[in-house]
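In response to reviewer comment 3 from the previous cycle, which asked for concrete evidence that the modeling workflow produces usable outputs, we include below a single protein chain processed end to end. The sequence was submitted unchanged, and the resulting structure tokens are shown without manual editing.
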Amino acid sequence: MKTGFETIGNAILTLYDNGRPVLVTDPWFTPQAYFGSWGQSHEIPEQQMKGILGAEYVWLSHGHPDHLNPESIPQLMGKKILLPDHVGKRIHDDLKGQGFDVHVMQDRRWYTLSEHVRVYCISDLNQDAVLLADINGRLVFNRTDASDHGWENHVRSIIKRYPVSFMMGLSSRYGDADMINFFHEDGSRIAPTEVTPAIGKRNANRTETVGAKYFIPFSSMHTYQREDSAWANIFHTSLDDYRNGFESDKCQMLPAYVRYNCMDDSWEEIRPRELPVTILPATDFGDDWNDKLDAEDRELASRYFKAIGHLATHLDYVNLRVGGQDHTIKISDRKFNRGVTFEAPRNSLMTAIRYEVFDDMLIANFMKTTLHGDWGPSRLYPDFTPYVAKYADNGMAKTRDELATYFKAYRDRAVLDYLKWTFEKRAEGIYRKYISDESVLHKAAKGIYWHYKKKLR
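The workflow returned the following structure tokens.
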């Protein structure tokens, strides 16, 4: 590779210039993430590993362990770590304290890294971020796990300037890169539903919407390897699934693992070996489902959830079921007739609470989540997961005043984009209260929505 890029692993994008690896993104290359629940779906070949380890810069989009991996990142000591400008600066402070050379990228500013490579970052209030990379006049839009939080129109305006552009980002058939391990109160599983439209059609729509020429499957390549999360493997998205429904006269799909030459626009598929799924006991990762909480654990857990002020405006209680015993944490004196039970092994649960990384438990999909009362079709969104995992854990905003300051910081960076996104989200919230995802009306509305979005190009 002279000047261009490669994709490999889960969300690894490596940029090259004049034969030298310049930057690598979200380098998870060790065997596990999420308390051992996730494993790599494909090996990372020696040639690509050489590029990963040889890059001068490392960009980390956000704090999930399939992006900022606690076993992989120590092997990159000495690199220049580039971070989005996340409010709260938790990742910055943690890495700085460990001795890493950390640099925060200001939003919406180009940074030149080499003769033919420059990069541009936008962070958002969901503690996610997107990266745009100009490689010899070709644009790569790496949206990783981010959904539009007010930046899409701006990104679209940049993509318009490039005759050759690529979009890569998270997508999956059943949403298994998020939490899908839900249960009814009677103990029956709430089966994950396949996203609509078909994943290929959805990705074609998304690519057309931002005006990119190519789509590359990305940030969705994992399997489940713990005995208590292996049930989710039937909902895993295979590489073949991404072609299902992908039809467009405006964009094309490239292979998930690709080497693209930005000097002559040639490309070749990288064909890494698919790794066998070996199911491992939870005890291999320090978890015993029979362990119970002690008094100190219960006190710590209670303080953790009660400190997140927004929860008291939405639910009555959080119940932790550990080792067959319930610990119910009263959240509000008001009666919402709504609560949630998290059933999980003690070690991983308390690790997540102690280090304030509760999203790792949700996404690991071995913790069983039972919803009590009416949570609506979006379940833990938008009044639990973002406030706990995004704003509190990562953004360090727990009280009402802290949240006001947090949201203002993001709003002030791009006022018009923020206000437009806020209006759209409120309208969507009202719509979802009355229209089911399974209804004919919703399917028709979805088609109108994508038609409108594409017209914005």
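The mean pLDDT is 94. We consider this sufficient to address the reviewer's concern, and the full set will be provided in the supplementary archive.
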